[in-house]
Amino acid sequence: MAKINHNSFVNTINNIVNQAKTEGIIHLDFNGETWKGAEMQIGDRSLVNFGTCGYLGLETNPKLIENAIEYTKRYGTQFSISRAYVSSKVNNDLEDVLSQIFDGCKTIVFSSTTLAHIAMFPLVVEPNDLIILDQQAHVSMQTGAQLVAAKGTAIEIIRHNSMEMLERKIQQYDNKINKIWYVLDGVYSMYGDLPPFDELNVLSKKYPKLHFYVDDAHGMSWAGNNGSGCAFGKFKDNEKTILVSTMAKGFGSIGGIVVFPNDEWYERVKMHGGPLAYSHPLAPSIIGASLASAEIHLSNDLISLQNELRSRIEYCNKLLAQTDIPVLSNPSTPIYFLGTGQPNVGYNLNKRILKEGFYVNIGMFPAVPVKNTGLRFTMTNHVSLKDVENFVAALSYHYPKALEDENRTNNQVRKAFKMPYLEGKKALVQKKDSEDLTISIFHSINEIDEQIWNELSSENVMCTHSQLKMNEEAFQGNDLIEENMKMYYFIVTKEATDQIVCATLFSQILLKDDVFSEASKSILVENVREKNPYFLTSNYLMMGTMLTEGNHLFVKDARFLEQSLDLILKELSGIQEKNDVNTILLRDLDSENQQLSKYLNGKGFARFDMPNGNIIPDLPKSESGLVETLSKSSKQNFKRYIKKFEDHFYVEIKDTLDEDEMKVFKKSQNELTDKNFAVNLFRYPSKFFESSNRNQAWEFIILKNKEFEIVSIGSALKVGSSYVPVLIGLKTITKVKVYHQMLFQAVKRAISLGCNKVHLGLTADSAKKDVGAHQVSRVGFIQSKDNYNFEVIENFRLTNE
Known about the structure:
The longest helix is centred in the middle third of the chain and has 21 residues, at 301-321. Strands 14, 15, 16, 17, 18, 19, 20 and 28 form an 8-stranded mixed beta sheet that branches. 38% of the residues lie in helices and 20% in strands. The two termini are 28 Å apart. By secondary structure, the chain is of the alpha+beta class.
């Protein structure tokens, strides 16, 4: 099994973003000479704007523009001095008038909402507090939370809007910490949904330690009395709530706002807030525009603007309700999310709508799971009711067309989002290619002719018929659930000729979700697993098995690869639903195959970088010949770490291990597996060791010291002209590099057998280079129904449960 490099998450995002950029739907350039709000000038086209967050249209309001100009004339373009030294009167005036919007609560303005979070978390949250982050909490709050995590504050994450999970966490920590901070959005920016405010207030009364930290950036201005937002009116009587908002969306200007429920927190931040002292204050032009906007907020003009927006939202909702388009968002907010499921459907629909003359956004990974891609648009006062009518008409026409283009159905999309199916809708018939293909599924290698399978898998020596039979025997009928697997073999053939065009194999198995994570994070997770061994684990459908590596996708006719994969992925999806499988994992694929990457990304798979494979492709016939192939640095390491200590050991090659040797092998391998957090796996079942000991294709390399004590035992597979060291157990840690020595002895053994190729497996590249291995880059693709476990592992400091 493989391990993602620590920076692979960034690479995964880059791959997806680059694909969307290539499709021409993101990283676009606005090149209009003026901005009026209703139109978005992209290239040589003017598009109706359904993509920005100026909900009330105030950014083009004459009062804001005139006041921005006036304040620039009076005070210049900036007031460049820290507020720790001098705070401008106009800045104080703005904070005073914002306090009126929030019923007299004191406020502080920041250059941005992100800087507000960076200031707030370290000053308000203490080391003995607990932060509970909603799964969908905005990334800017996650950034702030990480600042206090470094000082020892515990952080947990709960599933989005799960009050049951929130209460469990509260009960778990209630007697252990000072305050519990639930961190949430007032309006969630992707799906436009709201928190369960009533339930949160009930919990607040029930648990005195529960506090709320709310970012209501997307609720500001269009909702609430005086435009105070969605959350303030719900929590205004709650002394345990800090509200952060923004002037950068509905308010029509720029800057973050913090609303304080008491003087203590206000004075602490006013005195010590880092960004207040070390970042620039708002520019005079922004303050001028903000003061003009605040004046509108405190007048009856705001009610008219809010009603105008509400009429557009209600009209859009009415029109969408007359279509079959899956709408995921809350109908009371101006943020809309239309589910498309697979990215290729989202790309297709987005491009169609752009061509129709409407600017929209795409909701994509990492903001949402890859297979939960959707079209995201916003409603603003910039657009007319006629614009809304034309826009929904375009959506209604193009949505089914995009599904048809990508061979998907509306109900398949609804299934991805756990929405009710449409009744009376027939599934779309599979598109026909130049030749029809048929897929056959087998649940044991014994159901497949040995000669046929071995010809298919000839490029993967670990996937021979006999070795997969041993795999199946080893991973069936065991007591522990992680030591059992189900097998699925897929063979795709042409109907007319019965000719095989593609084949692959998958195993259904329980894996640790941090198998892809950095070792430091796996160590934290393992601390929890001491009491809860299945913490953050999931059922996977994994290409290959725990004991195989290398290419598992056997393509015999590349012309039909995508059509074959369509059939395979459809079957995998069905198996996933029937067997409570969370994640489908495709692995060990060619990193240079961009066409395959584009295809799988469009099907909802996120690409990640796997560890290199280590292969000696053309094994020299002698040790001296091997040394000659090494680089200068590897030759030095070979002499320094390997050859120098070779005579410290006795080497024994055995076809089978005796009872005592097998005990040593099992124990040393289990200990190594437990400590190998770089590839965090469950232990191999005892049956595997026993099966390999009986199998003629396997042999064992034993390393003993001068006292004839075993220091290492390794198992190796002999297949044709290839030699594959599979497991190496280290019993004794000495000053000499035992692992290097075992690698060398394995290669030396392969030379003596006359092998042409040696497969040295994954990770430990530098050590394997020193014995002649070449590194082969590989990638994997992953798709999950639920990203919760991965988000917990990737983003947050875990605490013992």
